[in-house]
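Follow-up to my post from last week.
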Amino acid sequence: MEIKSVKEFNDGIKSILINEKQIADEIKKAGKYIDNIYDGRPILLVSILKGSFVFLADLCRAVSVPCEVGFMCAKSYYNGTQSSGIVNITMDLDQNVNNYHIVIVEDIIDTGRTLNDVVKLLKARNPLSLTIVTLLDKPERRVVDFKPDYALFTIPDEFVIGYGLDFGELYRNLPYIAIFDESKL
Ligand code: IMP
Ligand code: MG
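User reply:
Got it. Predicted complex:
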């Protein structure tokens, strides 16, 4: 998207929904939740790009047990409102997962389609276990029946930006989560 000035950029930020302190506090708790998965066998934090890169960076530093990180980029295709189950991996993990406890680290679950497909795909690779941790959950928007194991925040049906989340590839660098003001652009 084309934004010509810093003012125009700032005008897209309607209001702060979740501030930096709230994010930091919830990440500490999520780190402890992941610590509890550890049973002596390896944990792999799988970040679904791009939106979750900021969250992963903070979350992995709140985990105090041995863990590895991996990255995946996935796109799903649908006919109508039904998930086709066909997920196109544009970048895959570079490790075998069948000896790992996988923790999927996602930025936001909206319709649930993408993650539903990613979970099917990763389960087929026979990990030791699979846990879904999402920064944000927007349950009102769901079209497939899908629940994360752990959501740091449940939010209303608003388009949000910041802390990794974008509008037209911009705003990922905001340190907080804000509601996007589409009327301003
Ligand atoms: P879904 O759950 O398959 O609909 O896809 C979720 C993906 O859509 C997320 O990983 C985001 O990349 C994107 N997305 C959904 N809602 C928002 C939002 O409010 N702000 C920014 N990106 C969003
Ligand atoms: Mg995403």
